Amino acid sequence: MQKLAEINDVVNTFVWTKVGVWLLIATGLLLTILTGFFQVTRIGHWMKKTVGSLFDKKVTGHTGERASISQFQALCTALAATVGVGNIAGVSAAIITGGPGAVFWMWLAAFFGMMTNYSENILGIYFRRKNHNGEWSGGAMYYLQDGLGGYKGMKGVGKALAIIFAICAALASFGIGNMGQINKIVINFTSAFDIKALSGVVLYSGGDKDVTLYMLFVGIALMILVGVVVIGGLQRIAMVAEKIIPFMVVMYVLGSLVIIFTHISHVGTAFSHIFSMAFTPNAAWGGATGVAFSTIITQGCKRGVFSNEAGLGSSVMVHSNSNVKEPVKQGLWGIFEVFADTIIICTMTALVILTSGVIDLDKGVTEYSDATLVAEAFNTIFKVGNIEYGRYFIAIAILLFAFTTVLGWSHYGSKAVEYLAGKNAPLVTKIYKFIFVLMILSGALMTSSIAWDISDTFNGLMMIPNLIGVVAMSPLVVRLTKNYVQRRIKGEKVDPVLSYDQKIQEENAKAIEETGED
User: Rounded to two decimals, what is the model's pTM?
Assistant: First the structure.
């Protein structure tokens, strides 16, 4: 295990620090420039077509089709996988390791990540096709295979990168999308809602951690709950996500706002530290050596993409199941997804930490770990006597955040396996789902963070081939964006560009013409 951890650290450092972060920012910057800063210049349009359309039945209404889910369900399922532990413990870790300045780089990564996610979703819809069950299948593996692979002499390269992406996605689904999330749920839940009769029974110990009977029971309960949803397929996952996601996001934001407004006098100081330490590290942070400038950038960008997944190519696999006909329309939801996840939720978490006094902003000192920092911040207000309501609130938030992340990633993993299995996909995806559900118990009982660390590396390994594909397909992204703007915003009479497949192109164009879809 020690040797495995050492090897993983080397690969992780190379993937994230040497290559990944810079490729991520460069891709987002390139697409932002090529699309004319679309996330800014068309902010009114994408806001209207996303959050402004939440009461439109065409957007939120269930399709009744096996092949697809509604645009809102696609967003909620994508947010289910992205809004998770990274929004709480991930932001805490970024601040503790990189200082308040890491938040600025998290915002910057999200700003450019909006256009990366937008582009991924456009390409996902454009290159999608029907699978053996008549459902839509799309994702990085398809635009790598048919997009990048469609260039002269690049067929083998595109196919190879598609396979690498799918393998990494399937493996990452067991780590970031399963065991890592479940482990955080179990630790926080059993700690906040302790039952002495169960937590007092130690099954075994690993390092400084005891695995108790209570953890086993919670793990079994989670395994059953996830199993019931996952075996029901995407339609059931989407139905659960659209009910839990809006509720948990609103409750978390409201709870955070209470903390922030209670400490409103500290908000100015918090923002001052975020901006000043983004470029000039404070020697007091990080102990005797201080925080290196590269660490601030890496932590901010890394935790940002860990939270919103822009650039990983993961959420494309569920956005591609949307009932939308226009690729760009789903791309707009991709912009909103990153905005909601990082600009709103992660910022709430950062301000809760930086204003509540749980960390000394001048000395960079805190007595709490990244796992408990936010809970203690909530306890500064939501605590009556010895009853720590803030701790309970965060434990439930992590439970809902992480639970829905598991559901979302089960879909990502099954789509990756489906691609790899080819003609054997029906059987292989069933076996994958069975193993995925069983691995939940491993996550509940594991004593090492190695599974989490390795999945972090696979995230980076997913990101690299995906970003290569997105950059290679950037001319197509520009073409689709221009075509959409001409037709939908400027009202010009031009033929729509909707799919790489001529049959799907004709069907969708006809449907848009008949229904007047906007």
Answer: 0.89
